[in-house]
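Posting this for the archive.
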Amino acid sequence: MSEKLRVGILGATGMVGQRFISLLENHPWFEVTAVAASPRSAGKTYEDAVGDRWKMDTPMPETVKKLVVRNVLEVEEMCKDVDFVFSAVDMSKDEIKKIEEAYAKCETPVVSNNSAHRWTPDVPMVVPEINPEHFEVIKDQKKRLGTTRGFIAVKPNCSIQSYAPVLTAWKEFEPTEVVVTTYQAISGAGKTFKDWPEMVGNIIPYIGGEEEKSEMEPLRLWGHIENGEIVKAESPIITSQCIRVPVLNGHTAAVFVKFAKKPTKEQLIEKLVYFSGEPQKLELPSAPKQFIQYLEEDNRPQVSLDVDYEHGMGISVGRLREDKVYDYKFVGLSHNTVRGAAGGAVLCAEFLTAKGYITRK
């Protein structure tokens, strides 16, 4: 790409906003030219607005330190200076819906990390290796919004990334029932151990809203477009528990699966390691070369060893074995703030750019 697209980040001072900032440093296609946050941060430099709350393990990029933070509510001012925005705002669901639609109606595409629009019928919720065809619903969304280039696209919840791609790879064997328990890192709540010392050596067996998302969002990924809207799949039946554990980054899932057409273990592993999608074909900048790795060792995947596989954009799977009640069981691991949040949104934006949905103003 000869000239980089100008990117704005809404909610730039929070943890996911910071992850966007760090992932976009030296990006070959995108350049962060504007950052926005709440009115209390507006007018400060990004460096001053974040202060000692920088939570990434790499330094704050020099290119953003002196950017003046804008008021996220001043939509037209922000839209003048960017080609599209990433959204990671921390507001109520209704407020997020309203602000993201305002940016879209200002003819500025919105690629969102937030959950507010995940069930809006004409808003695509996409993992690019799984359901990129859902982006086709954007044309219907534009009709509703009355826009020519503005739209909203979202990525799904971080909790499903460690098992939904695996089940997608096994689609031909027709999974019918899935039991999943996710062990979720504290960064999923926007926290570090410094912010949340009571999580050290602790487990909390409840994360608000996560179980519903874990059970329903995969079905939307596997759904289809009908009359300009996305209709979710009816199967498999998924039941889940979501537990907060004392890990900084990395969501682990323990999963049990029943199939209509029971495969061999060798067939399942083969499907995993050869599974790829459009991002790999297009060689998108953030796409993992190998989306899913299978680890033979009994004690893998481990957060400390595997969470950064493919720069955090890949999925690690291990402990696949037959089960006495279900057909098979396995353990999956994904990086919740990279593949599961900002990185997944960046990959969506790369795909949308490659396909001409996002262009220069």
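The chain has two domains: 5-157+342-354, 159-335. The longest helix spans residues 338-354.
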